[in-house]
Specification:
CATH topology of the largest domain in chain A: Cytochrome Bc1 Complex, Chain D, domain 2
Oligomer: heterodimer
Order of helices and strands of chain A: HHHHHHEEHHH
Distance between the termini of chain A: 75 Å
Largest interface: A-B, 31 and 30 residues
Order of helices and strands of chain B: HHHHHHHHEHHHHHHHHHHHHHHHHHE
Radius of gyration of chain B: 25 Å
Largest sheet of chain A: 2 strands, antiparallel
CATH class of the largest domain in chain A: Mainly Alpha
CATH class of the largest domain in chain B: Mainly Alpha
Strand order of the largest sheet of chain B: 1-2
Helix content of chain A: 40-55%
Radius of gyration of chain A: 27 Å
Number of helices of chain B: 25
Chain lengths: 194, 662
């Protein structure tokens, strides 16, 4: 190994290192370019590369009731990379079991009881389907949409007698807005509580 | 004089003042006296809080939490000052520590403490010393917004002072003992070194390395909080913030006991007449601490359900691995050293001996609390208050007093009076253990900590504890009065005018460059070229989608500069010029990462993104900051420079992992 104190030998090592780094960087850039071009190709011909069964959500998933009939196909047909309709939908039992696990692991029980007992947040017993009075005096039915929003954005509709900011602060790090399957599982578990 | 000295220490013991220069003695006085003064003042605040919980006096909630905040931050300052001063003073005969840097550390820490006093007493700041995000910024008008900024800057200054101390400790110790492995005793452990460093050096090395790591974590979270104060658009992950806060805070408090233990390794042999030799169990014990103390902090997050379970499990092991080995080995070997030695019992030597008891009891309380099932019951109770007060009050402070009294006794040429010593020691013991004992009992009963009011019908515990605290304060006061008497005698002797005997200063090796072989240069150059890829336009476009990736890109640009700076600093011709400027280097390795992180405040860089030229200039500036930091690291020698390099890029990575917004 060359001694760094001898100038000539040192410069050879430096030039060699720069060359090695340039080679690695070149490989990285080449990989990126190849991947980018392949992505461009895919984007240009999505129909040719994507099986028909996975490109038409309408065939596998009925449109939600709120979907406007004038929705254009471009809006309802997501890119090939985002569709996952071929995955088998979990059964209701599986959803509830998953929701129960999430209920425990994410600490929901710290604030919400399942047996009607008072807590930092409202109890889940008998919540699903009930009429909830909000802090502005209005009422809302605790349906799926309400429960999902209550998990993803707790401050959007705050129940009477409770404060905004507490649950939103506690669940912020969970990023439920990026985990629709987990939210659905939690909703299923809550509905199971009657 | 010799007759006097013989009456102060063991006949075969060595005086510590006789080997010290006058300016060194003055620095030691400065640190220990300031630390004990701050301790006294913060102790009064503590007694006031305890009397309030006992319903003897009435403090408003606002004032209680102000005092709680001041007491916590102030006691950290007090413990740091006394223990830093003690280790520095006893180590300087072995390691040529830098006087100027020690004075800088003092100025920074005291300035920081003054800002903390202003923030709490004038600004009403009251979110506790832990400054847990986002509480400092959500005062609901309980304190003035500016007080948060002042408190954070105060903490940053305290951290900077400790950081400089640790840098000097690491640089000088490694230079004196010929590298990291020898200074940590690893070479001795592997039978490659017949003359291991003394135990105090082992403690100093562990403190220096852990202190720098904790300082980096603390700087990152405090700069992020200051960034939020500058631009409210900057936010951060609460779990990330709590991890960094406790990494810094728990480690800083923990290190005060290791600093003090290092001093005890030198002070105790003065009373036994036997040297405290380094043995392999002592080396292994300190290596355990080095490995584990950085991760033990996570036991503060057992109840944070979002903290990964593996972190909690590892923390439990780390808490044992960090706390038990050095305590057990030090206490055991210390007691063996005393056994049969005709130990010279004086006020100072008794304080040293009693400090072992405080470390053992306080440490045991901590280890019990680090067990996860017990922690779930105890952690938010007064049990935790009991454990850390035990080792701070009954070990760190007693050992600081031991050095203080020892210096005075040596200066005066005589020991403290027996009756006064017995009374003050008795009061300290009864008062101290009564105070923490009530906390231990209260903790097991579930009385919560950090509350101005306690559950109904528990005020009696606080009243009893208050009485014990006052007994401790009386003992403290009596000891101070005896110290004043010794100081008067010492001033008559004019000891500090007597020059130290001409003992040769320990020699240190010349600093080495960070890169010493051609292969190392080649590796750094290769890495530099690869990371230049961070400037590629597609990456700049892609990271716009996520603030964390955006910060990561800036970190990569900073790393490019760091690598270039390190390579330049290691070139023989460059190194020959910069090696003589370590003070400038220390300044820049602190300033570089701080400016880099503050530069990522959204309101600064977002305004530049609309202009491609300015945007590029900003990115070049990130690398330029890295170059400056890398060059500065090159002035600190092989071990310290490389550690600073790792910590600098570590700060950029930590920042990118947790800070969002903008």
């Amino acid at each position: 190994m060359a001694d760094a104190k001898t100038g000539d030998a040192l410069w050879k090592w430096i030039v060699g290192g720069i060359a090695a780094g340039a080679a690695v960087l070149g490989l990285l850039i080449a990989s990126y370019a190849i991947g980018y071009n392949r992505g461009e190709d895919n984007a240009a011909a999505p129909a040719a590369t994507t099986p028909p069964a996975t490109t038409a959500p309408a065939e596998t998933t009925p449109p939600p009731a709120t979907t406007a009939p004038e929705t254009t196909p471009a809006k309802t047909t997501p890119p090939a990379t985002e569709t996952q309709p071929t995955e088998t939908a979990p059964s209701q039992t599986e959803l509830v079991a998953r929701g129960e696990g999430l209920w425990s692991s994410t600490g929901c029980a710290g604030c919400h009881s399942l047996d009607g007992a008072a807590g930092v947040g409202p109890t889940m017993q008998g919540l699903a389907g009930s009429t909830v009075t909000l802090d502005d005096g209005s009422t809302v039915t605790a349906d799926d949409a309400y429960l999902e929003q209550a998990i993803v954005d707790p401050d959007a509709q705050v129940s009477e007698g409770y404060k905004a900011g507490i649950m939103s602060g506690a669940v912020a790090s969970q990023k439920f807005d990026t985990r629709p399957e987990d939210v659905a599982a939690l909703v299923a578990f809550i509905e199971k509580q009657g | 004089m010799e007759a006097h000295a013989a009456s102060v220490v063991h006949p075969s013991g060595t005086e510590i003042l006789a080997t010290a220069r006058v300016d060194e003695r003055r620095v030691a006085w400065l640190y220990v006296c300031t630390g004990l003064t701050v301790f006294g003042a913060m102790g009064l605040a503590g007694i006031a809080m305890r009397l309030n919980q006992a319903e003897v006096i009435t403090l408003s909630d606002s004032w209680f939490y102000r005092l709680l905040t001041l007491h916590g931050a102030g006691m950290l300052v007090a413990a740091l000052l006394v223990s830093m001063g003690a280790l520095w003073f006893v180590l300087r005969t072995t390691v040529p520590l830098h006087l100027g840097r020690m004075l800088f550390s003092y100025a920074a820490i005291v300035s920081g403490a003054v800002l903390v006093v202003i923030a709490t007493l004038l600004g009403g700041y009251a979110s506790a010393w832990t400054f847990l995000w986002p509480l400092p910024f959500d005062s609901f008008d309980a304190w003035r917004p500016w007080s948060t900024d002042v408190f954070l800057v105060g903490n940053l200054l305290v951290g900077a002072g400790f950081f400089v101390y640790c840098l000097d400790l690491l640089m000088q110790t490694c230079a004196t003992y010929g590298g990291l492995q020898r200074a940590l005793g690893i070479s001795y452990l592997r039978d490659r070194d017949d003359s291991p460093p003394p135990p105090a050096v082992l403690a100093a090395m562990v403190v220096a390395i852990e202190g720098l790591m904790a300082g980096a974590a603390g700087t990152t979270i405090i700069v992020a909080l200051i960034g939020h104060a500058i631009d409210s658009g900057l936010t951060m992950d609460a779990l990330w913030a709590k991890n960094l806060t406790y990494f810094f805070g728990h480690s800083a408090f923990n290190l005060t006991i290791y600093l003090s233990a290092g001093a005890v390794y030198v002070l105790l042999p003065g009373y036994t007449g036997r040297p405290w030799k380094t043995t392999k169990p002592i080396v292994v014990a300190w290596l355990f601490t080095l490995v584990f103390v950085a991760t033990a902090y996570s036991h503060h997050l057992y109840m944070d359900f979002v903290q990964p379970e593996w972190a909690a499990g590892f923390s439990s092991i780390a808490s044992f691995g960090a706390a038990l080995p050095p305590a057990v080995v030090t206490i055991f070997t210390g007691v063996v050293l005393i056994w049969g030695s005709r130990y010279r019992w004086t006020l100072a030597s008794a304080l040293l001996y009693l400090g072992f008891m405080g470390w053992a009891i306080g440490g045991t309380g901590a280890v019990i609390d680090s067990l996860i099932p017990i922690n779930f019951k105890f952690h938010n109770t007064l049990w935790v208050t009991a454990h850390f007060h035990t080792y701070l009050l009954m070990a760190v402070i007693l050992w600081a007093f031991a050095l203080f009294v020892r210096m005075l006794e040596e200066s005066a040429g005589r020991t403290a009076r027996d009756g006064v010593s017995a009374f003050s020691l008795g009061a300290l013991l009864v008062g101290g253990y009564g105070l923490v004992g009530v906390w231990f009992v209260s903790g097991t009963l579930g009385i919560p900590r950090r509350w101005a009011i306690h559950p109904e019908n528990t005020a009696g515990y606080s009243l009893v504890a208050s009485i014990f605290a006052i007994v401790f304060a009386i003992g403290f006061l009596v000891m101070l009065l005896e110290c004043l008497r010794l100081a008067r005698l010492a001033s008559v002797q004019r000891w500090d005018r007597i020059p130290a005997p001409s003992s040769s200063l320990p020699t240190r090796a010349d600093p080495e460059p960070l890169l010493s072989s051609g292969f190392q240069f080649a590796a750094v150059c290769a890495a530099t070229v690869v990371f230049i890829g961070a400037y590629a336009p597609p990456i700049t476009d892609a990271v716009e989608s996520n603030v964390r990736y955006h910060h990561l890109q800036h970190g990569a640009m900073y790393l490019v500069g760091l690598l270039v700076g390190v390579a330049f600093a290691s070139l023989p011709s460059v190194f020959a010029r910069i090696r003589s400027h370590p003070n400038l280097g220390i300044t820049l390795v602190i300033a570089g990462p701080v400016v880099m992180m503050l530069g990522m405040v959204p309101s600064i860089y977002e305004s530049l993104e609309s202009n491609a030229g300015l945007h590029l200039l900003y990115h070049v500036g990130m690398a330029a900051l890295g170059v400056v930091t890398g060059l500065a690291a090159g002035t600190l020698g092989l071990v310290t420079g490389r550690l600073v390099f790792v910590l600098s890029i570590g700060m950029a990575l930590m920042y990118a992992a947790g800070v969002t917004g903008g």
